[in-house]
Amino acid sequence: MSELLKRTLSSIVFVPGILVLLYLGGVYFDALCLGLSMVLVYEWLNLWRGYAVRKGLKFQELVFISVGVIYIGLAMHKFWTLKDIQHKQFMTFLIVWTTDVGAYIFGKKFGKTPFSPVISPKKTWEGFWGGVCVCVVICSAVMYAQLAELLPYTGASSFLYNFFSGITLFSTLVFSIRFMFYSIFAHLGDLLESWVKRYVGVKDSSQLIPGHGGFLDRFDSFLAVCCAYYVKDILHSCGIFF
What we know:
Its main location: membrane. The protein is mainly alpha-helical and about 240 residues long. It has eight helices and two strands. The chain has one domain (about 5-235).
């Protein structure tokens, strides 16, 4: 079976599975957060176990390991706090998926300028900004659709009328800044995991997801976006809103 076929089949099973658990919510959402946290921490520690066998661990590596566990824990806790905000749970994954798909398409089609040749030679600036733009456009459209459901139009007013009524210069600017912010964090999360894998000398964090590598390979951007929510909270406390 080719890697592309494995990747496609895994996505067909994996993505709907996550969406179903998000939709069911409650104990199912708790199970998703707990199970994912355990798998991610396991993969993280297992990465360094192999490194320790080959080279041993110095103080800085012990610090890396500890910080990584805290990073995963904080990110997953932040996601768990979205338990009663179902649309934000979905938006978190949508930010990650649209950034990833946009970066892949634009990088494949137009990629020429290396983004980080040392850490991840295949990534390009064209892919980076392509991912950001796709994320901004699709996620903003979803937000406008959510606004359309809240607008007080009834009777002959159609959903499309409500949808476009919500589009203003201010809302477009706010959504663009918001999703650009999150998408950049998604890219940085991917880059961070690439650096770690290069440091420990492995290609994938594990082989738990056929065609995709490990859960850390698939959720590196997700963890970064969840941590971006903390940064946004801090900015809000400083009076910066978007």
